[in-house]
């Protein structure tokens, strides 16, 4: 519900002016939230007008009174022990370049940052399969995120080329003889050099039979669409290892992303170190945190709870009939009938683990796992559906919650402002340097970080969505039963290596392809 101010022709009258002045004086008293400084990690101010009620009031009340022993905290913050496998992205075969390149490969990548990241890895693999020269991939503007950032805006292109120089040839742009091969060229007509029929998870043979002849005939092939267009199975080990080398070694963010990420990490680890902008202390502090087990440590929570996620899930989030209608309309506008209203009830969706966790639910999960209110939480997220009203319960459970806005000044964030891919890149970087990472729902960011942190043997909590869905449906469950079920259900979900099964992504499950015996 927005605030509407109606202006009439007589607003200059003395009486109108007096009433306006009186209203202005009284607003701070009756609506203090509009005039108080924004809290930490607060996406919206006016969204608090429609505050959704807690859906788990019994659990919340107990969670707010929770006590965690030093022993439990010690176990939580202890890093993962060394496991049986270690990173192995280098091929056992010495890398080499072909005597002569067959021609150029162009790819056009849609999706958000992490979908594009996987597409870049696949593009390098396809170029290797075809003995072709890769043109730095073109990143499409996503219709949802609307970010026009290029590869070179996000990734360190010189590092990328240098790391892979012995594996494939890469050029930043096409030579003048091929300057006609642009996105606009392929958008205006059917072109012989465009490959648009690549099936999802195509085999290496498909590329050799269908793309190589185009490259040999014209000197270039442009593949679009390309997302998810290379199989995860039945590929030579050197190709699999190369994909991991790209993902875990070659793709490094540009210096200003890393510098901002390092500043955020430093401020999270040293809250009283005054490492914020000059003259400003961005971090909240609690006097009794210094000697706690988690001092100097932090958890990254990837809270994927934007309007897209809420609408796509077709779940009920407590906003009543109006919310259901609004999300159904949003589904139709954005996906134009490709995403239908669910045929399942909300209870069925939740028990199947198909509903994203709300901020309140992820807060209750963290509390049940043993994280107390001295835990420093970094919120990695895009716009949260429902704004501050949705986050308020999570903040009550974890008052030391931060995000990019609360940790860095507007001047420090100037280069990434309004650029979804760069914002996501900062969150990815901070997530890779956190002590613990947890995501509220599956998705490309979740998958990419689970895979990368598995590769680096970093503690990563994977929520059991079906278990939590069933627990949250039980409105009479006690806190002790809830906590016991959560702890037992997540004993083996803290980052233990899981071997990839057929058809599963190598970027989410890097073992065994990209790891070897320790």
From TrEMBL:
Topology in the lipid bilayer is annotated as: Single-pass membrane protein
Q: Where are the transmembrane segments?
A: none
> Where found?
Membrane
Output the InterPro entries linked to this UniProt entry: FucosylTrfase_pln, GDP-Fuc_O-FucTrfase, GT106_glycosyltransferase
A Pfam family the protein falls into? O-FucT
Instruction: Tell me the protein family, please.
Output: Belongs to the glycosyltransferase GT106 family.
Query: What name has this protein been given in UniProt?
Result: O-fucosyltransferase family protein
Which species does this protein come from?
Answer: Prunus mume
What phylogenetic lineage does the species belong to? Eukaryota, Viridiplantae, Streptophyta, Embryophyta, Tracheophyta
